[in-house]
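User: DUF2613 domain-containing protein, Streptomyces glomeratus:
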Amino acid sequence: MSRLLAAVLTMAAAAALAVGAALGIVALLDATPEQPNTPLITYENTGQER
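Assistant: Predicted structure for DUF2613 domain-containing protein:
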């Protein structure tokens, strides 16, 4: 009986660890890095329209 209990507890601990790791990875991927909002290309506005 103790082997069965040990197997069940090990399985529950592994499942909890897997869920925690998955949530941690999702939280890291959802984090947005600080980026400046400056365009790489700028065009001069000469008043002419195409």
